[in-house]
């Protein structure tokens, strides 16, 4: 199994077009700070790749990755499909950018599929251009494509809905609770209190090599199945949106904390740093918000991570398992 990191930023990217925070201003002054929206490419076999999340940067991400370039043949592409970790705009807007293809295969959970087809009317919008082929993404491992040794499964980590789906139906179209009234799940979510799979982490396992990776760009809880998956993983790419819980309020762009926005912070008593440090897996943070001090390559927080054997994922890096 081969993974390629296509992007490592949270919504808006770094820099964000309407933001002059230190992180965005620094990225304008120092292009090496720039980060595209968080995404990952997974090689299913010698001829097929799947993109995890379809970000607004999807075209640039594919063009900067030679393994994803088309050919041989004028319209032959190695990009076989998409896998979605949620229905947020930052992870789905790129689907429309692929409309030039004859078909787009999309693996998604029931709630995500319902939101995109129902509230977002994605099928209606794209039907005149291309065909969307939906595949179920759930807890049972399935091959990425026919004949692939790489299996994928989903681990629910948050019931947070995208804003456009607030008040809509669940996976079966029935009404469910609005996210504005649904408290963020505890970091110690009980295994007997399952989450509705609006946001999932992905477990990727190569049956041939035995390698396993977990990709969780948005993480509101630490349920028991997720903990077990990390314990068995060789590589983990985890939500690094905010350094500490008060960062959104301190930055002045939200009245909520990081956990209140659906992201466990890196530092602090309920942070992920101390949870990742004991693992034997290689661990990298991704999905960094522009306010996160880690967007500065010289920030002292990088040394703090290194002391615990952790790091921020670099865009363009390859991970072989």
TrEMBL record:
Pathway: Cofactor biosynthesis; pyrroloquinoline quinone biosynthesis. Residues 174-192 have a biased composition (Polar residues). It comes from the Bacteria. SUPFAM superfamilies: Metallo-hydrolase/oxidoreductase. Belongs to the PqqB family. Residues 48-281 form the Metallo-beta-lactamase domain. Coiled coil: none annotated. This is Coenzyme PQQ synthesis protein B. GO terms for biological process: pyrroloquinoline quinone biosynthetic process. Residues 163-194 are annotated as: Disordered. It holds the Pfam family Lactamase_B_2.
């Amino acid at each position: 199994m081969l993974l390629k990191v296509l992007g490592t930023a949270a919504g808006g990217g770094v820099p964000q077009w309407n933001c002059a925070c230190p992180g965005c201003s620094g990225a304008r002054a120092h292009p090496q700070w720039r980060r595209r929206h968080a995404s990952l490419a997974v090689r299913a076999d010698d001829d097929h790749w799947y993109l995890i999340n379809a970000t607004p940067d999807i075209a640039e991400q594919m063009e900067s990755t030679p393994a994803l370039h088309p050919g041989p043949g004028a319209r032959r592409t190695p990009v076989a499909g998409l896998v979605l970790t949620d229905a947020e705009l930052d992870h789905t807007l790129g689907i429309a950018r692929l409309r030039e293809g004859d078909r787009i295969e999309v693996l998604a959970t029931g709630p995500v599929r319902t939101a995109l087809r129902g509230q977002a009317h994605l099928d209606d919008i794209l039907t005149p251009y291309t065909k969307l082929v939906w595949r179920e993404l759930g807890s049972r491992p399935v091959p990425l494509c026919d004949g692939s040794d790489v299996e994928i499964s989903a681990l629910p980590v948050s019931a947070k809905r995208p804003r456009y789906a607030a008040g809509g139906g669940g996976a079966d179209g029935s009404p469910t609770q609005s996210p504005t009234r649904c408290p963020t799940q505890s970091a110690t979510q009980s295994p007997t209190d399952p989450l509705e799979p609006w946001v999932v982490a992905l477990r990727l396992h190569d049956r041939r090599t035995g390698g396993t990776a977990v990709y969780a760009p948005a993480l509101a809880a630490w349920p028991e199945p997720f903990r077990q998956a990390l314990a068995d993983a060789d590589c983990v790419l985890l939500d690094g949106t905010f350094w500490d819980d008060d960062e959104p309020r301190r930055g002045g762009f939200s009245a909520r904390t990081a956990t209140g926005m659906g992201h466990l912070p890196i530092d602090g008593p309920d942070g992920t740093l101390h949870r990742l440090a004991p693992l034997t897996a290689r661990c990298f943070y991704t999905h960094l918000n522009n306010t996160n001090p880690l967007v500065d390559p010289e920030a002292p927080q990088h040394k703090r991570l290194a002391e615990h054997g952790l790091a921020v994922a670099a865009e363009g890096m390859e991970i072989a398992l």
